[in-house]
Specification:
330 residues, mainly alpha, 3 domains, 16 helices, globular, binds zinc ion
């Protein structure tokens, strides 16, 4: 029977309803008005949308079953390994860098806005490096492998990506004075919104959301980020506020004339767990092994994906610039 209760706990954990169930059991319904109570009602929204998306896909058109299958396997794998390391890294970075903070913020609305902008900067740095440094791309590419967009893609991450991302984001925030209380509130909002932007076209076909597309990052922007079309490659690195994409000129809107093709440019089997999870690591090991000389071997680790010691580079920058030059005459 113990195995049954473990499975039940895992299911309620996945659905995000553990806290809400505890409040219901305690009978203290007033607790739903507290911060924790409100959060307990927000947690289940994404998992329930994910299930709805899957059901709608099954009913109306054949969904990309292999995407759900591989992402479910990844969820199970990461559930037991990645999350604990990430939590440990956040605690470690807060402990180490707090005393080096340039100044301290407080719990006011204007510091909250400041903290969110700083968080997005940390997110931009981690995400940009995840695309531009081959070693970090090995950690991030699992998230880009799915060739369809739906909420299960939220769970598609290499287990070391969360510790890597949280180390950078937490360090940037703490050094720039963001208090841990603000940081945790922002992490919650970022995590929930960061999941929502993966909503599939089964549920929301046009995800530009009108004027919101002009002032914040919408699922439409993130669909562009997941695309392998030359125009869309390596754009839209932000999560909720896309000011840093505009500052660093990586902003790209979804163009009606350029239909999104999801996935990465390498030939791969997006239904194969090993290929999705370790494919980029294997490709990097091969390139390092075949590269002549130590310096070239080292360059493969730190140069962008697509860089070649032969000079025949196929990096996103090269591919996108060539596309813009040819098709748009820029
Ligand atoms: Zn990315
Ligand atoms: Zn994503």
């Amino acid at each position: 029977m113990e195995i049954l209760s473990i499975v039940l706990n895992e299911i309620t954990g996945f659905l995000g309803i553990t806290q809400a169930l505890e409040i219901l059991k305690s009978g203290d319904y007033a607790a739903f008005k507290t911060y924790d109570g409100i959060a307990s009602l927000i947690y289940p929204i994404i998992p329930l949308l994910l299930l709805l998306e899957l059901v709608v896909g099954l009913v109306y058109k054949k969904p990309q079953i292999k995407v759900y299958k591989v992402n479910f396997l990844i969820y199970i794998f990461n559930r037991f390994v990645g999350r604990f390391i990430a939590i440990a890294m956040v605690t470690f970075c807060i402990g180490v860098f707090s005393s080096y903070a340039l100044f301290k913020t407080s719990n006011t609305w204007y510091w909250f806005i400041y903290a969110y902008i700083v968080w997005e900067l940390g997110h931009f740095v981690y995400h940009y490096l995840g695309h531009k440094v081959r070693l970090f791309w090995c950690l991030h590419s699992t998230h880009h492998a799915p060739e369809d967009m739906n909420l299960s893609v939220t769970h598609a991450h290499f287990f070391l990506e969360a510790p890597y991302a949280d180390t950078i984001r937490t360090t940037v925030c703490i050094l720039l004075g963001v208090q841990p209380e603000l940081l945790f509130t922002i992490m919650f909002i970022d995590g929930t919104y960061g999941a929502f932007i993966h909503i599939g076209e089964n549920l929301i076909k046009d995800a530009r959301f009108g004027f919101l597309n002009k002032i914040m990052l919408t699922p439409s922007h993130h669909r562009v980020h997941h695309a392998r079309n030359p125009l869309y490659m390596d754009t839209n690195f932000c999560n909720l506020l896309n000011i840093w994409d505009k500052v660093f000129k990586t902003y790209q809107e979804e163009e009606k004339s350029v239909q999104i093709e999801y996935g990465i440019t390498r030939e791969m089997d997006s239904g194969n767990f090993i290929d999705v999870y370790f494919g980029e690591v294997i490709a990097l090991v091969k390139d390092v092994a075949n590269a002549p000389g130590l310096i070239n071997k080292f360059r493969y680790l730190i140069m962008p994906p697509g860089w070649s010691h032969t000079g025949d580079h196929k990096t996103a920058k090269v591919v996108r610039s060539a596309y813009l030059k040819n098709s748009l005459g820029i």
